Amino acid sequence: MAHMDRIVVDPAVVHGRPFIHGTRMRVSDVLSLLAAGASEQEIVEDYPYLTSEDVRACLHYAAAQADHTIVRAS
């Protein structure tokens, strides 16, 4: 998975929320920026410690979290 080496969870950093390795930037912050209309390029320009790969890793992480087991009616 593309996000596995970039997205980490550490109880001692940002209150245990998922963040980008080597930063204190939460995945939710990057996703909020994207949802508000910021482009990947704008985010990387505004936060020079992030890379395009970091932004894409946040999207991959969110997609993986949104996937769930199919519940079938009995």
From TrEMBL:
Domain of life the protein comes from: Bacteria
One Pfam family of this protein, by short name?
DUF433
Write down the InterPro entries for this protein, in alphabetical order. Answer: DUF433, Homeodomain-like_sf, WH-like_DNA-bd_sf
Report what the protein is called.
Uncharacterized protein (DUF433 family)
Q: Which organism is it from?
A: Rarobacter faecitabidus
